[in-house]
């Protein structure tokens, strides 16, 4: 099984890159599952139903979220029926709408996609290790193919999570920091790991925001309104994961498309 995962879609710039390159990536790599993190897709904060449907129509099979899941209030109007969207599974059980995982049918196989949120320097959530342990035990009765988008701030928490579940989860790929890391690897027991897949959106901003606003905040330490940089060049970040028939990973490779890394057919 081959999985294509695209990192945090940021604003209109990110949507533009998905529209232009996701079909091309699917034609080039022929993934059986395409997963897109879209928690920043509408103006950098959350997602609405129009954009949710647009990203699915462009080729995404599942959309994952993160700590910005509730930033756009429009999500409350459709998340209950958004069967192809997963929000962090370790939000308070039974108290929030939406689902924390979904299962895709891929020919004769099934792929479970889980969204999990870290706790270090993040908004409060339940223990991701404990919640994921219970989920994996449940899902293993149905499939050995399990993908986790671990939305977290620190590399150490993401590494700890991947090592803890090495051999139990097919792939643990981090999101949230918007900067692709250079640590793609397959752990000894067969779990593919990447601390952060990176961002799809503005290439010349600062983690997607207009750099002038961010620099002003650092210089003056005064409250500054951050806005998505929609005026400059754009980038796409992702990764490709190959799984064996027993659900373990055999390869993970990163993808970048931008002015310095042009797409090649």
Automatic annotation (TrEMBL):
Required co-factors: Fe(3+)
Residues that bind Fe cation 1: 8, 39-40, 178
Positions of Fe cation 2 binding: 39, 67, 151, 176
InterPro entries registered for this protein in UniProt: Metallo-depent_PP-like (IPR029052), YmdB-like (IPR005235)
Keywords for this protein: Hydrolase, Iron, Metal-binding
GO MF terms held by the record: 2',3'-cyclic-nucleotide 3'-phosphodiesterase activity; metal ion binding
Active site location: 68
Source superkingdom: Bacteria
NCBIfam families: TIGR00282 family metallophosphoesterase (TIGR00282)
Family membership: Belongs to the YmdB-like family.
Name recorded for this polypeptide: Metallophosphoesterase
Organism: Liquorilactobacillus hordei
